[in-house]
Amino acid sequence: MEFKKLSNGVEIPMLGFGTYQIDNADVPAAIQGAIDAGYRHFDCAHIYGNEKAIGKAFKDSGIKREDLFITSKVWNADQGYDSTLKAFDQTLSDLQMDYLDLYLIHWPNEENFQLTLDTWKALETLYDQGKVKAIGVSNFSEKQLQEVFDMAKVRPMVNQIERHPYKTQVELAKFDTDNDIVNEGYSPIGHGHLILQDKTINEIAKKHNKTAAQVVLRWHIDTGFVIFPKSSKVSRVKENFDIFDFNLTDDEIKAIGALDQDKHLNY
């Protein structure tokens, strides 16, 4: 495993396991399969509707809490100072844990950004209380981050954004890095939308004797992004983890970056 150090010194595993759209009935096998494959970083969210099942799966696995890195997020409907604290307590209860490693604002409130700023104050309170080891945001633009900077006692340590070879987010990623914010990329292979059939990626994969998915995941890590692919197939879960025995060349990284179309693949 490779790690990225957050601005407060906390180390985050660069490869995690995503839990979005995993049905509750499938959670036990998915979590155990990921743990068996070597994953220790899990990206969760209240809105995914499966945190209770995930919490039970961790308990049943017997793995020590200190060996896990757990992220969750406060959903839009729970934004605001008091409601965020309440939502956090619910997530802790559902996950059967007494702290989180990382807590994020899932989305900025475009219509009432003051509500989002109040939410950030709640995250700072949780951080001060030691209930979460690091705090951050998701889907925030440079302008929105600057508004948080202007009022924050503690700056965001992470910005989680859509990122894949067809949406490389170069400018936002540089802004984050310049402000000591670690970049996380969700949908790292774009839900497979054409990316895994891309000629350039497959040519690079052949050179390394790797799959297209492994090359894309390696590209993220080689460009400094923390990622968390998801799969319900045990073979794919193991395949996604098998990316720490090679690196891409500078030319290969540039070739994949050149595929950028600024294209959303989530909507």
Tell me the strand order in the biggest sheet: 3-4-5-6-7-8-9-10
Query: Quick one: CATH class?
Result: Alpha Beta
Instruction: Choose one word for the global shape.
Output: globular
Q: Which runs of at least 5 residues are low in confidence (pLDDT < 50)?
A: none
The CATH topology annotation reads as TIM Barrel
Q: What does the main sheet amount to?
A: 8 strands, parallel
Mean pLDDT: 95
CA-atom Rg in angstroms: 18 Å
Order of helical and strand elements = EEEHEHEHEHEHEHEHHEHH
Considering the protein shown, what is the CATH homologous superfamily?
A: NADP-dependent oxidoreductase domain
Strand % is 5-15%
Helix content: 40-55%
| CA(first)-CA(last) distance | 31 Å
Characterization of the model:
There is one protein chain. The protein is α/β, with parallel strands linked by helices and 267 residues long. It has a single domain, classed as NADP-dependent oxidoreductase domain (TIM Barrel), CATH 3.20.20.100. 41% of the residues lie in helices and 14% in strands. It contains ten helices and ten strands. The strands form two sheets. Strands 3-4-5-6-7-8-9-10 form an eight-stranded parallel β-sheet. Strands 1-2 form a two-stranded antiparallel ribbon. Helix 7 crosses helix 8. It is globular and about 55 Å long. The two termini are 31 Å apart.
Fold blueprint:
Blueprint: E1 3-5, E2 11-13, E3 17-18, H1 27-37, E4 41-43, H2 51-61, E5 69-74, H3 81-95, E6 102-105, H4 113-128, E7 135-138, H5 142-151, E8 158-162, H6 170-178, E9 182-186, H7 199-208, H8 212-222, E10 226-227, H9 234-241, H10 250-257
